[in-house]
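MODEL INPUT / OUTPUT PAIR
PAIR INDEX: 1
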Amino acid sequence: MSNENDRELPPAPPPADSAPVRAEATPGWERKTLEKLLFATLEEQKTQRRWRTFVRLAWLAFFIVLIWLLTYKGTPGADKAQPHTAVIEIEGEIGPKSEASAEFIVAAAKAAFEDAGAQGVVLLINSPGGSPVQAGIVNDELRRLKARYKKPLYAVVEESCASAAYYIAVSADRIFVDKASMVGSIGVLMEGFGFVGLMDKLGVERRLLTAGENKGFLDPFSPQTPRHREHAQQMLDLVHRQFIEVVRTGRGKRLKEVPELYSGLFWTGQQAVDLGLADQLGNLDYVAREVIKAEELVDYTRHENVAEKLAKRFGAAIGEGAVKALRAVPALQ
């Protein structure tokens, strides 16, 4: 039999004053760690320098391309020295900030009339109208160029030639249309909205301070007075009479003076020919081949290049920042 003295005893705990054994560090580890940190820092600095160099070269290339685009206006694809028909496109809304602006159209017209190879100039029109001021500038300049260079000027209408576009077209010697073109709209409008009733329902009070009793004229948040309405109508009537006079000067006895001719209505190309607003049916190729007798077409249209668009966007961004900074100050207009 075994007794209690024969039982196995648990191992004795280590002495209280004994310390845990530490792994010995590799000799020189501090130096290796510092070297790694140093090399990593140097590599990072090299990467940053390469990136800065790349960014600078990219900006340099961008400005070189920008300068080239600003100075390069482009030339027509055909040989301008040979007899040809000069084409100027008037497309989209006519306005000071569009490609169908007086600045662009007049510049193209000057180049076309001055070119000795151009046997005639064609306005290729596809526009719903726009600014009467811009149209008036173009009309005056086209008539001046015709008289100076003694070259024929024709208008060819594609989809539409309405309002300010027709204001320009009547400067031409003859107007050619498609039978389904939209032509006319000899009228003037001034548009806007009035929110007075809505503001009353919402309980919103309009606080408008002016110096000058008519400075708030046509303010959409203020009631329209009979006096202001009469004044606006007088202005529109005056511009309308100017428009009618330009049309009569350009078209002369070819017009059939029916009551609705100057009412703002527009007509199909065939109806326009019947009313004397246009001369005959025909497209660009027909006019170049049969009328001007120069089938070769050269496009003189002035287009806004990429650099100009970028410059405008850059300027718009700066202007937006300036506006935001000034919004805290009450505006005087």
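PAIR INDEX: 2
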Amino acid sequence: MLRYQILPVTPFAQNCCLLWDDATGEAVFTDPGGEVERLLGEAARRELRVGAIWLTHAHIDHAGAAGELAQRLDVPIVGPHRDDQFWIDMLPQQSQMFGFPPAQAFTPTRWLVDGDRLELGELEFEVRHCPGHTPGHVVFHHAPARRCWVGDVLFAGSIGRTDFPRGNHQQLIDSIVTRLWPMGDDTVFIPGHGPESSFGAERRSNPYVGGT
């Protein structure tokens, strides 16, 4: 059975998540933007075996601690899509620009593309490429639990910014409508910031994509 804990990190209150299969104790971190010691402590407290880091995209608040955490745990970095390599290369510059601890650039162990599958213990996730906020943004969907980790594509009552380099507003809307909505109105999503919501609730009331 899928279990997860949201662990907001960095001054941006970014929703890093610890996901695990409670049948096997195998775990992953999604989007570790910072606070490495806290993340390591949480996994140790739950006696979980962290086997990978999954990234939705490479903005500093989502990927700033990925390189260090991967080294400390000796695990692969999986994702995002290779179109975000330029953001990864800019992590040291991003950390200075936003006042974050020094961040190291890296090359993911595995790039992801639309339709890829990821395994966590006995659980399977589908990867969907959802560009717009960044060109290489991906999301992680676990259909049996009706849960999706969407990074900064969609929020409760809002959508991701598209004013960063290579952001594209229409592409973001298209990603939401064609990639997220088909997962079903009852699917709960975990955004990169703020509270969880459901795709159905956002289709009804989100001022940016309501009624789509």
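PAIR 2 NOTE: The chain has a mean pLDDT of 97.
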